Amino acid sequence: MDDGQPGCCLQKRDILRGRTAVSRLFAEGRSVRSGRVRLVFLERDASVADAGSSPVRAMFVVSKRNVASAVTRNRLKRLMREAYRLERTEVREYSLPGKAGLLDLAFIYAGKKPANISLHMVRRDIRSLLEDLSGRIGAG
User: Fold this and answer.
1) Among 32, 79, 44, 34, which Cα is nearest to 60's?
2) What's this model's pTM, rounded to 2 decimal places?
3) Which of 3, 82, 83, 87: CA 20 to 30 A from 106?
4) Could you say which DSSP state residue 15 is in?
């Protein structure tokens, strides 16, 4: 449902895909945690960038070990995607034309009891992670 505003929806090119990109992210990436969500991030080289991919790509993970119900796992991933979509302006500023930043992000739900989780709770955790991330990548 794109109403013409930039950043109103999460497009396919904004999602991190591919075995090599994902394994590189988890092998070489750094990690931060806030509340129930952990963020693994990796700055990419411009030389390795795929044509047509977004400067900031994200993936959303909920472990079957922590959350047995597929319905609940899918709901948590939807909540994380929506929270990221609403809060991603922090990260988009990093990838502006004057900066050479390319980022891969993995948001991992690390909580054990997802029964009463709301968008507000997930959004607060993701906002905190993105603020921490912008401080880390902006400083160094």
Assistant:
1) 79
2) 0.85
3) 3
4) B
